[in-house]
Amino acid sequence: MMMFELTSNKAKQQLERSYWLVSMMAWCYNGIIIDKINESHNFILNNYNKLRLVRYKTFRTNQKKFSDRHILFFCYRQAYTLIHWKWSLHQFSLCLSHIRPRTISMASEEQSSPPDNLPLVLIHRIPAFELSFKSWLPTRFRLLDPLDPSFSSPQTQSLVSSVRLFLCLGPFPLTSDTLDCFPSVQCVIASRAGLDHFDLAACRRRGITVTNAGDAFSPDAADYAVALLIDVLRRVSAGDRFIRAGSWPAKGQYPLGSKLGGKRVGIIGLGSIGSMIAKRLEPFGCIIAYNSRRKRPNVSFPYYENVMDLATNSDALILCCALTNETHHMINKDIMTALGKEGVIVNVGRGALIDEKELVQFLVKGDIGGAGLDVYEEEPKVPRELFELDNVVLSPHRAVLTPEAIVAVQEVVIANIEAFFANKPLPSQFELE
Q1: Where are the alpha helices (DSSP H) in 313-366?
Q2: How far apart are CA 283 and CA 295, in angstroms?
Q3: Cα 266 from Cα 345, distance rounded (Å)
Q4: Are residues 198 and 223 both part of a single domain?
Q5: Residue 10: Cβ within 10 Å count
Q6: What's the predicted TM-score (pTM) here?
Q7: Which of the four pLDDT bands, split at 50, 70 and 90, describes residue 209?
Q8: Structural domain of residue 165, as residue ranges?
């Protein structure tokens, strides 16, 4: 029921035209904004005369009465500003809060349920890892989210037994027990590059196909690994702290760092990320060697079958391999001893690739040259002994994450889903051994 009638039919027509114009603009920029535009449109319709009064009292000029055109321009200028700058829905609510009567509650529009014939996608995630997946996954899929209240409805439960595709978002473990609950699942699509949180053996036994993020994270992870290596060698972060602490005038010149060019860099895991790291380091004049599960065809870099030999012949080790039972704590006391007192370790893989307690002892005692760490054994806990060491660069597990990488992952996920339902080869299928 309308609480306030529009003053004229002409005003209402102007309002309708403005609504469709702004709605079309919202759709062009971001479809999720359209719901809030609809909400504001209904609110303006129901409270038009009161808005005129608020507009008059808030923006008085010459004490004159504002026309319908003025008030429409005022209301829809807020929506245009939101769309132009891509503000969030919450900010849009705040944008109109100064004219919203707190005593009026607005009923949300009923959302129509998706058609029953859409392909089913079961979401597997932790509550904190939502990432607004509904805003970027195509509407041509029907998403079943166990964390959604509607999941327990009889209608949704009747569909669960026929789900063939699992979409795993974030680091939520995928166990054999979870797969037992969904016997019809044929494919698991992950949004991460590493799959150490999956029971891959259970997937292999069941004949389930698995995909990961493919190369979506690789360029940014490679950039970050090289940045950490340069930072440790040239003492960039440590020099920044030196100046900020006011130590330059008091203590004089800062100690010199070490040159990157000519360094022997051993890469552990010459997959997509490792290959891109090598490609970035070659122009610096670095001498590349690698260790991997197997020797890579058509790769000219020296291959070392075991990490010990690689460490003995390297000035720095960069870790970018998967975490498995075989690679857990692969960088131990013996490997660090072989790397030597001037050696540097960079880890953009997984924290448990390194025996962290041994690494801390080596760094504190000066038995190793330095470390650039983006990952840790018990994240977000980081050994406090590392905080005061100038030869250590610490990063909060952000090597692979940039806005561009997130968009790339979304595209890979969508491509994998579409390929599965179209019975086509999956773009980033993971090899189960």
Answers
A1: 333-339, 356-365
A2: 23
A3: 10
A4: no
A5: 11
A6: 0.70
A7: very high
A8: 120-216+406-421
